[in-house]
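Here is one chain, start to finish.
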Amino acid sequence: MSAPGYPGGPHQPPYPMTQPGGHSVAPYPSAPGYGNPHQAPPPGFMDYNSGPPPVMYQPSQVGPGPVPGPQYGGPPGGISPAPVGVPAAVAVGVPPGLEYLTQIDQILIHQKIELLEAFIGFETNNQYEIKNSLGQKIYKAKEKNDCCTRNCCGSLRSFDMKIKDNMDREVIRLIRPFRCVSCWCPCCLQEMEVQAPPGTTVGYVKQDWHPFVPKFSIQGPNKETVMKLEGPCFACNCCGDVNFELKSKDGDTPIGRISKQWSGLLKEVFTDTDNFGIQFPMDMDVKMKAVLMGACFLIDFMFFEKVGEANQRSTVFS
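Its structure:
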C-alpha cells in the first residue's frame, strides 16, 4: 500500500503531477495563508518584513552605486552604516541626528592638526573629528569666529561651534560667550550653551567657583543641575591622561569620565592638537550626552588650548 499523495502504481503520473493548463504542482494541499499575498498568514507565522528594523546605524555618507562588502579573509568590518535615504526608526524625544548616540557609551574626540598653526603659530579655527569606540567618524565639529577674536582673546575667546553628521547636517550647536576663567573673579566664570537641534537649548555647562579644583555643573534646559564634573587640582598631562570625573547631582556616585589623553611627546610639545575620551552610561538621556560633548570642548579650551607663545593653563588660579 503506497503512502498517501504519492503515485500508487506504475501507470500513475510521476511526481509532481501535471494539472490542466500545463502547470505542475505538488500533490500535497497548500496550507491556508501560505503563498497567497491577499490572504493573512496563519497564527504563529512570523513576518520578517513587517516594520522598520529596531536598530539604528550611525549616519554615513554613501556614494552612488552599491557598497562593496568585506572581502573573504579580510579584516572584519565594524558597524555597518545605513545608506543615505533609508528611513531609520525614530526614538521618541531624541533630537534629529542624535539617534546613534542612544547605542553607545563612549565617544572619542580628536582635534585635527592645522599646518598653518603648527608652523607659524597663527591661530586658526579648531576642527575636530568625533568617533565611536571603533574609530569610525560619526560627527565633525568646527569652531566659528573671527581672526581678531582668536588671536587677541586666546583661549578665553567666544565662539560658536557647529557639530555636523556625516551627511553634513548640523545636529548640535555650542555657544560659548566671553567669560573670565580665574577663580579670583567668581561672578563671571565659564559657561557654554548646548543646542540640539540648533535653536533648541538642551542644556548648559557652567563652571562652579572653587579656589583649587576645576568644577562644573551639567545643567538641563532650565539651568537645573543634573550632574557634576570635577577635575584634578593640577590639570597637566605630563606623560599621562588627565581625568575629569562625572558624578551624580549630589557629587557622591561616579557616573562617567572625560579624559584628556596623552598624545605623545612631539604632538604635546609642538602642537595643541588634543585627544579626548568621554564615557557615560548607555541609558543616559541622549540630550545630556550632547551636553557632555560641550563640556569636553569647554575643558579643552580652558586648560589645553595653546595660542602663540602663551602657555597652557593648568589650574584655576591663572
